[in-house]
Structure formats: C-alpha cells, structure tokens
Amino acid sequence: MNILISWLGKTDIDNMQANEPASIATLATKHSIIFDHIIILANTWEEHWDSYEKWLKKRLAVLHRPANVEIKNQSLNSPTDYQAVAAIMQKNLQALCRVENQVYINLTSGTPAMTAVSVLLGKGIYECHFLQSARDNTIEDVRIPFDFDATYAKAALSSISAKVVAGPKLSAAFDDMVSVSEAMQAVKHKAQRLAMTDLPALILGETGTGKEVLATAIHGASNRSAKPLKTVNCGALPENLVDSILFGHVKGAFTGANNDHAGLFEQANGGTLFLDEIGELTPAVQVKLLRALQQGEITRVGDSKTRQVDVRIIAATHRHLTEMVAEGTFREDLFYRIAVGVVELPALRNRTADIPELVKQIMAEINAVFAKLPEYKCKKISNPAIGFIKEQSWPGNIRALWNALNRAVLWADNTELSGADIQNALVETVKTTENTAVVPELVAGFDIQQYIDGIKENIVKAALGKTAGNKSKAAKLLGLANHQTLTNWMKQLHIDTEN
C-alpha cells in the first residue's frame, strides 16, 4: 500500500478556497504513484478541515484515484516545538511503516521544524520516501545524500576515542554523593549508568535513605538536565484533585478553576517527573497514571484535546511493591512500566563507612544555617561522638541523623559535640508492631488453663453477642471450622447452648 503523509499548511487551505491545488493536492493528484491512503496531520484551522477533506476527495474522484483521505487532529502547543513534533511524527510513522507499506512524506507543507523532524525520522529510522512540490506545482522526488547510520557511527566512534584518551570523568551531579562504602559505590555506579539512558527508574529504600537526592542526581547527570525536574509526593495527592495536579485543567473545568493550568506532566515536559512514594497511590490514581505513561499524552480536566508529553519517570518508594502486586493493591502493569532501572539504597546501618563523611557534610550545612544567629560559635564533632553514631541503628536513616545533629548543635553548650551530646539528642520511637499484650502477675498458685478459659469465654460471648446468638455466624467470626466446635467450647465453658 502506498501512503502519503503530510502536515497541513496554510497555503493548502488558502489555495483550496481559491479552488487551486497546493502541495498536498498536487502530490495527491499529479504524482505518478497513486496513493491508496492520504494522511494529513493538522493542529490549526480546524474550521476548514471538513471542507478541505471533501474538496480533495472530490478532485481525486474526478481522476478516478482512491479518495481515502484522513485529516488527523494532533495536539501541538507550538508548531516549532521540536520535541512535540518528533513525538507526533514518531507515533504516526511507527504505526504506518510496515513491510507491506511504502510511506511517502511531503516535505513542503508545514513548518521548518516539521520538515527537519520528518527527514530525521523518515531517513534515520523508518526508511521512508520524500516528496516536495514547487510553486508552479512541479513535483520532485527528494534524495537525502547521506547515510545517517554510517555518519552517526563514525561520529560516535570518534567521540568514544576522544573520551578514552581523556580518561574517565564522573558527572558533577554525583560529586556530593557520599560513597565510601562498597554498598554505596555499587549504587552510584548503577545510577550513573542509568542516568545515561532515558529508561524509567525505580528507587527503593527505607524512609530517609536519600531517594530524592539520588533522583535529583540521576536527572542532573542525564541529557534532560537542562529541562525541569518536577517532584510530587504521591501519598499527599488528594484523589479529587489528582487529575488537575498531574494533568492540568482548563478555565471553568470546575469551581475555582479561574485560569488554565498546566499539570506536572506538562511542567516536566522534556525533563523528569519524580513520583515519590508511588506505593501510596490509590488504585484509581494508578489507572490514570498508567494511561499517561503508556500513551505519552495527557488531557487536561475539562479539555477535549490531548497533549503530547515527553517525560522521563523516576519513581521511589519504601514499600515492597512486589508484595503489593501479589496482594492486588498495586497494579502489575504499572509496576513493570516503572521498574526498569531499579536501584536500591542501603539503610544507614548497612553503610557505616559513610557515616564520618555524612556527618561532616551535615555539620557544614548546620553551621552555615546557625551562623546567622547572634553570637553563634561554629561547632564540630568529636571522634568518640562519631563512634557513638556508628553504633546506632538509625531507623530513620540519614533524615534521623540530620535531625539528631541539629538538636545536638542546638542544645550543646560546648563547641565540640561529645557522644553524650548525641545521645541526649536522640528521640526514641515506639514501634507499634511490637507485641504490647498485658501479661498477668505470675504468683504462686497461678492457673494458666483457668486464665486461658477466661479469655476464651469472653471472646465467645463477644462473638455470640455480635451475631445475635447465631452459632454458625459466631463460629465463622472466630475462624472455627464449624458451629459444632463452638457448641463444644460453650459446653466446656458452661455458656448457655440452647440458643
């Protein structure tokens, strides 16, 4: 099948109104190749699309040529936005360029950005043919005079050779990341390799291990570093506003929507969107997010137009997503969409070799802040204090260490912090998962069976009361196999069994 694809140009519309052919009509009606399908990409002059389609179909019908013409609406904020134009062209060419099709691209209609992108994609990836027309309606088959693959390979080889001679150079984005320990060296190595790609990333680790710091470093070392990095805490997304926050809204979409608003996907276009604590997303929000990631486009609340977005996703969570997938609380398809480049940050207790350097960094930050206070004297930390820090488990990790050092600097009178100063600055936390059951006083004559029977009697009576005396329901509530077991218990405990 021969397919002609073209952007719709202003000249095409103007000449149609004068019943004269411009580029698209000239190629469709005069080229020696008869096109089975003509696809016209358009994002403006919508009021003329129907008229143009009917006009072109009529001219083709007169010439007994196939009149299979389709104008496709493409969401494009600016016709000179190279990234958006490339996303649209790639999506269309990927769908069209199959073995059985010969795809021809019109280079005359549209903006220079559209022409440049068409050449790059059509020649470099999809092996398309190129056509253009002149003002006098003459037609030219365009030959691109070089091989992109060979040219790129030669340039890449030259670049690699130059870098080998110059020696390795780590991205400055990772310079401040403490990695004395082997565990953090492995993390840093993975993150640097990941930064060189556009793959989605998933950062795992306990609360306070520095997941946002790592995400920022990956973005800063990537080819997207000149574009925005936007961050959202998924656990703080109100479900009734999630569409507006992520995808934006148009004026009047809902009460209080007084202006058009670009959501985080649009704000991060060309850059990176960091989805912190993605494991906290509700199932409904997971569906909406998955749709945006799969299609590479979003629709603002209250709008009918879709918008192309080019966003790299970095997600993070302290939760076990694989367990959540097994439990059905996290979508499996969303998990595999984000879990491509997976990096797990170690807990602070597993990277004690990094603690001296981390403390040094944190103390420098704290002193810089406290220096603004009158009569403040810069404080340092003693080696015994660092030794004490290394012995702690730090369940809150780096964040907990940062807080403890802040408190120690605030409360200590001396300029050198001791181990006692750090100990006094610690805040003990109570783990709610621990068994807090009350144990009775164990004295001589204590009867454990009587104690257990008392507990059992109270629970059985509570179950019967909750089920209005229905034994079957009470047995099910207690996790018993059948109501007969419950009846036997009641006889043993001398509970009325007549109901």
Automatic annotation (TrEMBL):
Q: Which InterPro entries match?
A: AAA+_ATPase, AAA_lid_NorR, Homeodomain-like_sf, P-loop_NTPase, Sigma_54_int, Sigma_54_int_dom_ATP-bd_2
The answer to whether the entry has keyword ATP-binding is yes
Do you know which Gene3D superfamilies this protein is assigned to?
1.10.8.60, Homeodomain-like, P-loop containing nucleotide triphosphate hydrolases
Keyword Repeat present in the record's keywords: the answer is no
Which PROSITE patterns does this entry report, sorted A to Z?
SIGMA54_INTERACT_2 (PS00676), SIGMA54_INTERACT_4 (PS50045)
Coiled coil regions in record: none
Which Pfam family, an example, fits this chain? Answer: Sigma54_activat
Which UniProt key words apply to this protein?
Answer: Activator, ATP-binding, DNA-binding, Nucleotide-binding, Two-component regulatory system
**PANTHER family (UniProt xref):** DNA-BINDING TRANSCRIPTIONAL REGULATOR NTRC, TRANSCRIPTIONAL REGULATORY PROTEIN
Its recorded name reads Sigma-54 dependent transcriptional regulator
Species whose genome carries this gene: Alishewanella maricola
